[in-house]
Amino acid sequence: MILATLLLQGVATVATASQPQTSATAAAVASAPAAARPAPRNAWNNPSPPYPTRSIEEGEAGTVRLKMHISAEGTVQAVALDSSSGYPRLDQAAMTAARTWRFIPAKRGGKAIPYIFIIPIEFSLKPAKS
């Protein structure tokens, strides 16, 4: 079974190349620095990125870290590569999927605010643990 894993605040959701699952959720903390900030809550069932067929054939695996800019409405305003998996196809698959995601906005003083966080997305060719 081929896997693409979306890691949110230490909670992993696994997706097979043929059957994506929904991602896990975690609380957003707006006052922490971006790199230390937990990933925002995800009530929109954002899908894990598809594992590129060519990457599976080539045995490519690794973790992509994306810097996500989220609006006060919970939409993705920008996605940037924080660190590469070492494989452009995996990096691009992660970035393409992340651009379509939605999040529950972070709040400060009860008011929704824009925020930035880093999210790791792991592509693994190891069998899923049952």
UniProtKB/TrEMBL annotation:
Location in the cell reads: Cell inner membrane
Q: What does the record list as coiled-coil region(s)? A: none
SUPFAM superfamilies in alphabetical order: TolA/TonB C-terminal domain (SSF74653)
The leader peptide range reads 1-17
Q: Where is this region: Disordered?
A: 25-56
Give the chief site where it resides.
membrane
- Tell me how this protein sits in the membrane: Single-pass membrane protein
Compositionally biased spans, kind Low complexity: 25-46
For this UniProt record, give its keywords in alphabetical order, as a comma-separated list. Cell inner membrane, Cell membrane, Membrane, Protein transport, Signal, Transmembrane, Transmembrane helix, Transport
Does the entry feature the keyword NAD, yes or no? Answer: no
Family membership: Belongs to the TonB family.
NCBIfam families given in the database record = tonB_Cterm (TIGR01352)
- The protein depicted here goes by the name TonB C-terminal domain-containing protein
